[in-house]
Design a protein that fits this description.
It is a single chain. By secondary structure, this protein is mainly β. It has a single domain, classed as Jelly Rolls (Sandwich). The chain is built from three helices and 18 strands. The strands form three sheets. Strands 1, 4, 5, 9, 14, 15, 16 and 18 form an eight-stranded antiparallel β-sheet that branches. The termini are far apart.
Length: 262
């Protein structure tokens, strides 16, 4: 019996515990008022000098005004309004962590409640920080969560690359129905490693993309650092596919926290 105890002790001594991911960046949105400017910047305006709607014919003008983005009661509020500004019939906000939060690989989690109604197009997503492989889509896009209001509860997780993108209708996309996404908070996230991208909601993986050993940057540009973007677009080629309901505004995406682990 003593021999058995000794063998068991040796086995336990040689078992290494898995390394837990370390929290490397977060925002809990604890301080009321403007979001922390050491963590967030903004994309402002309508996308280009002649008003191209961010390449998607979107109807909003992005601001950093408190009306459109603020922290209240420990929550981040991104709020879209129907109020004409600079040729656009709506205002909203688009927050970016570029140069304040940029990561290569990791687990990204965002706990959020989504807006509702035709014309809303909230997104939690990522773009390349350094654009090493060229302009969109060559350097890649990671859509952690996208939702269009005319298709309530259906959440999309997608990658776009030079070979796989929505212009070619070849994007690698997963989707799942979360019936109460507009009424309750859920954790939207990705597990991003050297050779795999997993999309999950509340720790349940619903879509995975695995890198083929033969892939070049055209298929897998995800070996560079990316930053986070959170916004509500209004209308556009996808969000406005069934029109915009002018009776629903304002609409909010509410974010409890953002956490990044590596």
């Amino acid at each position: 019996m003593r021999v058995i105890y000794i063998l068991v002790a040796i086995l336990f001594a040689n078992c290494k515990s898995p390394i837990s991911p370390k929290l490397v960046w977060s925002d809990e949105f604890d301080m009321p008022g403007k979001p922390n400017n050491t963590k967030w910047n903004y994309d402002l305006g309508d996308g280009c000098p002649n008003g191209c709607g961010w390449g998607n014919n979107e109807a909003e003008f992005y601001t950093q005004d408190l009306k459109n983005v603020r922290i209240e009661n420990g929550m981040l509020i991104i709020e879209a309004h129907k109020d004409s500004l600079n040729r656009r019939a709506y205002t909203s906000s688009r927050m970016v962590s570029k140069f304040n939060g940029d990561w290569l690989y990791g687990r990204i989690e965002v706990k959020a409640k989504l807006p509702r109604g035709k014309g809303t197009w909230p997104a939690i997503w990522m773009l390349s920080t350094d654009w090493k492989y060229g302009g969109w889509p060559a350097s890649g896009e990671i859509d952690i969560m996208e939702h269009v209001g005319y298709d309530p509860g259906v959440v999309h997780g997608t990658i776009h690359t030079e070979s796989y993108n929505h212009v070619k209708q070849t994007q690698k996309e997963g989707k799942v129905t979360i019936a109460d996404a507009q009424d309750q908070f859920h954790v939207y996230g990705i597990n991003w490693t050297k050779d795999k991208m997993e999309f999950f909601i509340d720790n349940t993986v619903y879509h995975s993309v695995i890198r083929d050993p033969k892939d070049t940057f055209k298929e897998w540009p995800f070996d560079q650092r990316f930053h986070l973007i959170m916004n509500i677009a209004v209308g556009g080629n996808w969000g406005g596919k069934e029109g915009i309901d002018d009776s629903i505004w304002p609409q909010r995406m509410i974010v409890d926290y953002v956490r990044v682990y590596q």
